[in-house]
């Protein structure tokens, strides 16, 4: 996450001090990406070194304030006008885990998928509850609800992908069984094929 | 406290011989007052079968279903119909509206059959249509409405009055995301007010409104997101 650009964006509203920047950030993003004050001050001093912010005196309580420089403003507008890079997808542990699970014998892949689906759905339940709970108005509340929506959409996409993986694996297992076991038995049964079990008598 | 819906060891076999399909095998599910449970699973996993049996529209091959403590298997045909009209709201996957009746008449029908004065039944129907955002379509016939509008009439019919149990089969299938969310908020609201609800859905974002999500696969419950039982009990006590 880009703490640097976030600080510049917040300072666009006017001079602020470190704690205040952190509070403003969390007003908009909840504690989704927690930010410690140390991180804020380190970032501020780097931004000052690079000429993007400058000291702006102190407030009545003696907090050291920072404000955006002209150069900082230029950098900020460049950030907003440049799309976030998607060419190098971030390393995704789940995708890697499944990619490995399907190639290693002895892993119960459907169980891996179901465990993840349950966990992701539980997270989705939490986000939904948070969304219902936030009835505040105003721009920071709106920002926070958009961040929640982003988490909701990401979780939803992950579950959809897991459904897809499961269906794809089931199909591949059926094709495998059909090509292995079909000794003049005709084509593999259709979509609703179910295993023939003689075991149920209930 | 009695569960609004208590399903024990439910099995349902369709057909016989080569066409024999075991749609459900040994499914148990309890829904408390104030609880919304979502059921997810691939196509053909038995979700609609489970819901129709829970609503008394189909009978189990074995196992029991109780609604508010009454074993549906012990009821006469007419007692079962009365319980369905009074206590159970049902949203069908294919809406199931009466084409010869307007939206308001469709929604008012179960209450009128129950002997409520037509004017009162209509007022309640219009209020329910209002809640799903289509009060202006009260006098339209189903054939003159879009799929999403018909679906909302079906939802209004299921939640009108004081239903103790609402069973909804893919109630958001024909709706855009915004309207879908609105319908979920409505269902959630009913449950928060004490109704028990079961929601069948393919959409994770809609299932996420539930207190608990049950996963069906080939007629078996394979997994369930934990519900905070203590929280449910506390909520129930507050009422
Ligand atoms: N009346 C019936 N006669 C024979 N088989 C049936 C009947 N109703 C359902 N089935 C079978 O029972 C199984 C479960 O069907 P059900 O309609 O409950 O699935 P579902 O989970 O609701 O699927 P979908 O997501 O497609 O609506 C399927 O294999 C279906 O073909
Ligand atoms: Mg169905």
Please, could you describe this protein's structure?
The complex is a heterodimer of chains A (202) and B (239). Chain A has 202 residues and is mainly alpha-helical. Chain A has 2 domains: 3-81, Arc Repressor Mutant, subunit A (Orthogonal Bundle); 93-193. Chain A contains 7 helices and 2 strands; from the N terminus they run αααββαααα. Chain A has helices at 3-11, 18-29, 37-49, 70-81, 93-101, 109-133, 139-181; strands at residues 53-58, 64-68. Chain A has a two-stranded antiparallel ribbon with strand order 1-2. In chain A, β1 (53-58) and β2 form a beta hairpin. In chain A, α6 (109-133) runs antiparallel to α7 (139-181). The model of chain A is unreliable at 184-202 (pLDDT under 50). By secondary structure, chain B is of the alpha/beta class. Chain B has one domain (3-238): P-loop containing nucleotide triphosphate hydrolases (Rossmann fold). In chain B, 36% of the residues lie in helices and 25% in strands. Chain B has 8 helices and 10 strands. Chain B has helices at residues 47-54, 77-87, 103-113, 118-131, 147-159, 177-192, 204-207, 229-238; strands spanning 5-14, 21-31, 36-40, 62-67, 70-71, 88-91, 165-169, 196-200, 212-217, 220-224. In chain B, the strands form 2 sheets. In chain B, strands 6-7-8-3-9-10 form a 6-stranded mixed beta sheet. Chain B has a 4-stranded antiparallel beta sheet with strand order 2-1-4-5, covered by helices on one side. In chain B, α3 (103-113) crosses α4 (118-131), α3 runs parallel beside α5 (147-159) and α4 crosses α5 (147-159). Mean pLDDT of chain B is 90; it is low at 229-239. The chains are: A mainly alpha (202), B alpha/beta (239). Adenosine-5'-triphosphate (ATP) binds next to β2 and α1 of chain B.
């Amino acid at each position: 996450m880009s703490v640097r650009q976030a600080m510049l964006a917040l300072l666009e509203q006017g001079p602020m001090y470190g704690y205040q920047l952190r509070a403003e950030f969390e007003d908009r993003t909840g504690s989704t990406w927690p930010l410690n004050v140390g991180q804020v001050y380190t970032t501020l001093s780097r931004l000052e070194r690079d000429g993007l912010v400058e000291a702006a005196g102190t407030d009545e309580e003696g907090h050291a304030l920072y404000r955006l420089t002209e150069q900082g403003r230029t950098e900020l507008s460049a950030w907003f006008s440049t799309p976030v890079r998607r060419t190098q997808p971030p390393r995704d542990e789940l995708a890697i885990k499944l990619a490995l699970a399907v190639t290693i014998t002895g892993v119960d892949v459907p169980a891996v998928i179901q465990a993840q689906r349950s966990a992701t759905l539980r997270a989705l339940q939490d986000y939904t509850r948070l969304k219902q709970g936030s009835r505040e108005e105003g721009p920071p509340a709106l920002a926070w609800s958009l961040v929640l929506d982003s988490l909701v959409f990401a979780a939803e996409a992950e579950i959809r992908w897991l459904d897809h993986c499961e269906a794809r694996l089931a199909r591949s297992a059926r094709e495998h069984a059909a090509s292995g076991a079909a000794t003049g038995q005709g084509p593999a049964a259709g979509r609703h094929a179910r295993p023939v079990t003689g075991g149920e008598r209930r | 406290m009695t569960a609004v819906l208590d399903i024990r060891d439910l099995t349902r076999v369709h057909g016989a011989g080569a066409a024999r399909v075991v749609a459900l095998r040994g499914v148990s599910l309890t829904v408390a007052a104030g609880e919304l449970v979502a059921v997810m699973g691939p196509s053909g996993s038995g979700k609609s079968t489970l819901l129709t049996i829970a609503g008394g529209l189909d009978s189990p091959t074995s196992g029991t279903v109780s609604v508010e403590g009454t074993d549906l298997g012990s009821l006469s045909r007419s007692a079962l119909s009365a319980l369905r009209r009074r206590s159970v709201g049902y949203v069908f996957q294919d809406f199931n509206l009466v084409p010869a009746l307007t939206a308001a008449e469709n929604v008012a029908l179960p209450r009128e059959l129950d002997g409520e004065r037509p004017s009162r039944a209509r007022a309640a129907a219009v209020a329910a249509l209002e809640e799903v955002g289509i009060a202006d379509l009260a006098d339209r016939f189903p054939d003159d409405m879009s799929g999403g509008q018909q679906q909302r009439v079906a939802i209004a019919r299921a939640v009108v009055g004081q239903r103790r149990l609402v069973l909804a089969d893919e109630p958001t299938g024909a709706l855009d995301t915004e309207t879908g969310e609105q319908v979920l908020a409505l269902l959630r609201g009913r449950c928060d007010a004490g109704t028990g609800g079961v929601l069948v859905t393919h959409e994770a974002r809609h299932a996420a409104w539930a207190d608990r999500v049950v996963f069906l696969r080939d007629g078996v419950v394979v997994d369930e997101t934990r519900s905070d039982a203590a929280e449910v009990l506390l909520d129930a006590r507050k009422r």
